[in-house]
From TrEMBL:
Phylogenetic classification of the source organism: Bacteria, Pseudomonadati, Pseudomonadota, Alphaproteobacteria, Rhodobacterales
UniProt KW keywords: DNA-binding, Transcription, Transcription regulation
Domain HTH tetR-type: 10-70
Name recorded for this polypeptide: TetR/AcrR family transcriptional regulator
GO molecular function: DNA binding
Naturally occurring in which organism (per UniProt): Paracoccus caeni
Record-linked Pfam families: TetR_C_33, TetR_N
Residues annotated to bind DNA: 33-52
Length: 192
């Protein structure tokens, strides 16, 4: 049992969610099974089925928690008092988005996979993170409809994160992506 997971009475749901996140961080989605999650949480192998109606329910709960963590990371970037200019804030939020994906790629993928069949609760928590990006993009929506610019920005940021374009590539790699900040500057310049 992982000592960081508390399985006291009433904490079993929480322990299972945390165990699932830890397994994703360590072993990707292949490591995500009810038995493995239960073993990591130090509870009966029947507990996940009882608390979540099986792996689909537990995956959904893990995705919800992932979006809570994701929104917190974006909000931390947004609220950084050292950033005064709207571009700096937008850039910090986008880079935080990309960094979250880089640090927790399996969780990131599960979060967005679960959005294919969202519950109202999952939609609500996922929307929180999008609203942070939307708000930061508002000053740059001048030349286009606001939703067109923010959708382009979101697609670029999410694509950059999903394709792991920010990571180092060997010199022999067939493609080297420009720095995200350069792409963001180009997008804003084209829109201005």
């Amino acid at each position: 049992m992982n000592p960081s997971i508390n399985t006291g009475r009433g904490d079993v749901r929480e322990a299972l969610i945390l165990a699932g996140i830890e397994l994703l961080d360590e072993q990707a989605t292949e490591g995500l099974s009810l038995r493995r999650i239960a073993a990591r949480a130090g509870v009966s192998h029947a507990a996940p089925a009882h608390y979540f109606d099986g792996l689909p329910g537990l995956r959904h709960a893990i995705a919800q928690r992932g979006f809570v963590l994701f929104a917190a990371a974006l909000a931390t970037a947004r609220d950084d008092q050292r950033l005064r200019h709207s571009f700096e804030k937008l850039e910090a939020i986008c880079l935080s988005y990309i960094q979250f994906a880089a640090n927790r790629m399996s969780l990131f993928r599960l979060m967005f996979d679960e959005l294919r069949t969202p519950s109202p609760d999952l939609s609500k928590v996922a929307t929180r993170s999008y609203l942070i990006l939307q708000e930061a993009s508002a000053p740059y929506s001048k030349g286009t409809a606001p939703d067109e610019f923010e959708t382009t920005l979101w697609a670029m940021t999410h694509g950059y994160a999903s394709l792991e374009l920010g990571r180092e590539r060997p010199p022999s790699a067939p493609f080297k992506a420009p720095a995200f900040s350069e792409m963001l500057n180009n997008l804003i310049a084209r829109n201005g």
